Every structure is written in C-alpha cells, then in structure tokens.
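Sequence in, structure out.
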Amino acid sequence: MTCAEALSVQSSSDTGVAPYRAAAEPAGCDHHTVARYVKMRAAGQEPDKRRHRARAIDDYLPKIEELVVRSQGKIRADVVHKRIAAMGFTGGERTTRRTVAEAKAQFRAGRRRVYRPWVTEPGLWLQYDWGDGPTIEGRKTTLWCAWLAWSRFRVVIPVWDKTLPTVTACLDATFRRIGGVPAYVLTDNEKTVTTEHVAGIAVRNPEIVEVARHYGTTMRTCQPADPETKGGSEATVRIAKADLVPKDVNLRDDYRTFGELEAACRDFCEQVNSRMHRATRRKPVERLAEEQQRLHPLPRRPFTAAFGTTRRVNWESTISVEAVRYSVPHELIDTRVWVRFHGDELIVTAVDENGSAREVVRHRRGRPGEPVLDDTHYPPREDKEADRTPKATSAEEAAFLALGPGAAAWLVEAGAAGARRIKAKMAEAVALAKLYSVAEVDRALGTAAVTGRFADKDLLSILDYQSARGHAEPVRRSENHSLQPGTSAWASFGVPTTTSDVSEYDESDLA
C-alpha cells in the first residue's frame, strides 16, 4: 500500500495522531507524511504531485535553455555555470549540473531519433567501411570491414591505402569470399565512390560505377556525416579494431610483418563467423549458405582495369617498369601481373587461379640501371657454398677427401691459388697418411690451406715441424714478434751492436 492509498482509507474528519499512525503503518511511511497529504487534499491540491519550490537558479533557466539549444544538447555544465555566475548567480555548481541535466533531457525528448527495425532480405545488402589498423614497421595500415546484412557474415582485409584500385581489389576479394554478389553495396561518401553532392544528390565516381557494373551490383551511400544509416558496418569496424589492433584491453602483441596481420584477420573472420550470433541465434556461416542462393553469380575474371598496366614475369622472377627491374614472388614466374604507381611506390597485383585479385608486393620507385630486388621473393638456396664444396668424382679424390676437413680446405684454397700438380700432391698426402696418422696429415693440410703453402715440399715440412713441436700452436705475427734477423752476427766484425756503443767509434771507423 502506498501513501496515497493510505490516504483513501483516512477520513478527513479524523483528528489526532493515532489515525495518522494507523494509516501510515500499512503504507510504510511516516505519519507526518499522511497528515501533510490530508491537509493538501483538504485544500483541493493533488497529493501525488509535488509542489515546485522556488530556487535561486530559476531566474537563469531561460539562459540555460538557450545555451543547451545552441549547442544541440552538448554543452558542459561547468561552461554553463561560468556563464550564469558572470550574470550574478551565487549558487553552487552542483545545482547547475542538475538543472543542465534536466534541460538536456527535455531537449532530447523533443528531438529523439526513432528507428524502425530494419528487416533485411537475403542477397540484398552488403555494407563496408574503413577502420584504423595497427602500425607495422612505422607505417599505418587500414582495415577493410565488410558486413553481409542478412547472414551477418563479416570480412576483414588489411590494406595499406584506400585508393580506388585497393577498393576494387577488396570488393572482388569480399565477393569471392561470400560466394556471390549482392544487389546493393552501401558505404560512406568517400571520393572513391562519391565525387560531390548536388542539391543533396550524390554524384557517383564514374570508375566505381564501371566496377559495380562489371560485378552486377549497385553502389549506394549513406547520408553525409550520418554513420547511423550504416550501423552494421560501423559495428563491424568497432569489433574488428577491438580484437585486431594491439591495445591494453586485448593484450595483443605488435605485428612484425604485414603477413602476420593478414593471418590475424583471417583467424578473426573464422572466429566471428563460426560462433552463434546474438540476434539471429545462428552461426553466420550457416546463414551464408542459405543466402548464397539469392546472390548474383560472380564474373570469372575480376575488374582489372583499375589495377594498372600488365607485365609478364620472366624467369628471373622480375618485371620491367619504365626501364627498372622489380622482383616479384617466384611463384608468379611466367604469369601476368598488373602494376601501377601510387606516390613513390610501385604496387603489383596478381590474380590467382580462382579469379581473386590480391596485392602481392610494394616496391619503392627505382631508377634505371638499379634493380629493386627483395630476397624473400626467391626460394632459399640449399647450399650457398656449393661451388666451394669438393665432391669426389674418382677413387683417388675420394681417398684424399676422406682425410678430413683440412684436406677439403686445402683443395679449395689450392685451386683458388692456381697451385701446380694438385693431383700429385693429393696422392702424396694420401701416402704420407700411412707414415703419419690421418689426423696429423689432415691437420697439416689445414695449416697449409690457412698459410697458403702449396709448394712441393711444404706439406712434408709442416709435418716435420708438427712432429718436433708437438701440437704447439704456430707462431702468429704480432707486435711482439718480428721476422727481422738479429744483429748478433755483427760481433765477429767488431761492429757495435747497440746504440750506446756507436759513440765509441768515429764515422771513419764505421766506414
């Protein structure tokens, strides 16, 4: 029971406190409240409507309402408080905040936008929009976010720019991923789609019209500066950025390469398209299978006119553009690609076996005579030192190389130095391995390769030195050692051997 209901059981003729307490108890209110309501009813007032008490800020309500209307309901309360304080208001900022909130609520109540639920039809609408992607190697990327309205199927593709060829490639990739072409494509009013507005009518870019005609669809744009008219793609952008762009909320690491971002986008699309959608209570990939029956068929070849001019990839996995050679992935050898310049970059686009267009590489603009090559475009060599790895072709060569790595090093260095009688010296080394151990001969051959000693008796000399000195390391040239012969032999001729002795002789004596 409320206080007003308690009022209905309380007679106006009753006097005293006891009846008020009896009526207030079932209502759960104070008996003074019941007494006040009885007096208001006796005075002809409505007890359920509170009487507005005069406030100091009431004199400034017209100004507050004016400021709210001028700002379209966006002005802050602290700004309003400064304005009315300058006009003489002495109340607190808390009172101003409450009054501004009431004025904003009244402003929105008369201008609230009412939406009729959009009932989509299969095969009719596709929406796309752009989102800011992560930064890779100091360069900012962009996320293409497309949304098939009826099935809620999402496609996210990372790109480097938002030019018309990139839009065409993304449209082609999206259509081929969903398996058909919808009747309409809705997007924002960018210059790639809308060149200008005349009397509120959007004037389409002729090139995007050609693209749409090629695929059998119609381009539509939302109202300018009104993202609510394409809320599906806006939500797709928001969800994709929340999951793919490294932030504190998702703890995702930075991307080292553009390929990592592409893989992350593919995983994201598989995840969101394979889980239950909150609105439809079905998986988007399951609804897509039904919607594909209502989509227009795909053309066999993509719209390649926007990708630039064609080039044939030669057997060196390069293309020539303006007398400059640029490398492309070796998988494209003997195929045709499309090239175009965008600023200081050369963009290469290829079409795969399924007819899907994709950007394969970007190069900096080169100059004639200076090829622009990327080592990642070529397969790794199994043995980069194949020309310096000896391979036995006879029994004699096999016996020599079996001595060890020192023998192989000796053969490589001897061949590079143009040594004479190499085969005879190899046979000599094999024979010496029977007198000395194989390890000693191999070590001597390694020493000869390092020191460049390939004469006839050099190997035997090194073996004798090793036998006499054991396994001592050879003397290395340094500041503390010199090959200059000493002056001890001069003593027999009576010539001073030190500088201090020179003073004892005259120049005639030295002569």
